[in-house]
Amino acid sequence: MSAACLVRLARCSGPYVGRSGLLQTALVPVPLQQDSHLQFTVFKRQLYSPSEQRHSNTRFDPDSSGRPTTWDSFGIWDNRIDEPILLPPSIRYGKPIPKVSLSKVGCASLIGQRKENEDRFQVSQMTDNILYFAVFDGHGGPEAADFCEKYMEKFIKDLVAEESNLELVLTKAFLEVDKALAKHLHFSPNVPGMNAGTTATVALLRDSIELVVGSVGDSRAMLCRKGKALKLTVDHTPERKDEKERIKKAGGFITWNSLGQPNVNGRLAMTRSIGDFDLKNMGVIAEPETKRISLHHVHDAFLALTTDGVNFIMNSQEICNIINQCNDPKEAAQRISEQALQYGSEDNSTIIVVPFSAWGKHKSSDTSFSFSRSFVSSGRWA
């Protein structure tokens, strides 16, 4: 759809427009329409189960082939998530961009076999055009995860007001939160957990199209594109050659526990985290690795943020396949967290599932086995 057509639509609508309004605008005699003899019939929208074949609610069959022309023929989407179109971003980017609603996001967190749940997660509308998603997996106590849950969004929001580069915003926010946590623990001598730490995986979605992720530790972010898992984060573990060399250069050392898992100074199974201040001089840093990606709403089905209680027992493609079998993100989040425990995870299992416009479009039929399921996750402490 041309930007001129979107501008024309904006003059007649508010900041949002439904798909029916977009379709009617797209079908008037404008340059986008090539065949003037197209005939169409509008069918009533229905609900479908994951196993049923879905059809577009609008059918074009000019050559009597029986093959419908769907929304994708217009370069848009065809799914079961019916969201309004954001006009200002659509005009800015020159293509229809649907609104991503927090009400459809699925979240789940189970305690597993642990004495307490040290996982934390958060979903919010941070600014008018930025959504905030985060998971924190605490260790050595919940103090660090609690602090991040309470203050990370505030630090990011303050930085966004001055800096437009979201990757730079996340980097500064992680480092500032780490410093603030150190001060908090130092001036709160009665607070336990001086050596507590946490992973942090944060995703910012601006204008429903610009996705930026920052991460420390082994919590993950994954995008499902065309039914395939696209990893947006890489675990910070001593198994990574670059991370191991950085730890050794800082004066730290690597040991292996009885399950063959490497640990920094025999204690921590990750090389980056927020907190863990006794290991800061040994190379454990709070600086995140960041990634920026533009969503393709025709192909992108969902974003998933997971903690290691899920990751150590299920690989990314397996998570992607299971979610693709679910009717909605809330069901998907619950099923993944429960599945991890059934597979033998002893850790807290937490997941956030954010649906995009290709939700329900790509069905995964292939199976994917996670080798890590042969082991029971032992946590971060040797």
TrEMBL record:
Keywords from the named record: Hydrolase, Manganese, Metal-binding, Mitochondrion, Protein phosphatase, Transit peptide
Signal sequence, renumbered to the chain: none
GO MF annotation list: metal ion binding; protein serine/threonine phosphatase activity
Gene3D superfamilies to which the protein is assigned, alphabetical: PPM-type phosphatase domain
Protein name: protein-serine/threonine phosphatase
GO CC aspect terms: mitochondrial matrix
Pfam family, one: PP2C
InterPro entries to which the protein is assigned, alphabetical: PP2C, PP2C_BS, PPM-type-like_dom_sf, PPM-type_phosphatase-like_dom
CDD domains reported in the protein's UniProt record: PP2Cc
EC id: 3.1.3.16
Superkingdom to which the source organism belongs: Eukaryota
Record has Hydrolase as a keyword: yes
Cofactor list: Mn(2+)
Comp. bias regions, Low complexity: 366-382
Domain PPM-type phosphatase, residue spans: 104-356
Region listing for Disordered, in residue ranges: 362-382
Subcellular location: Mitochondrion matrix
Species in which this protein is naturally found: Lates calcarifer
Family assignment from sequence similarity: Belongs to the PP2C family.
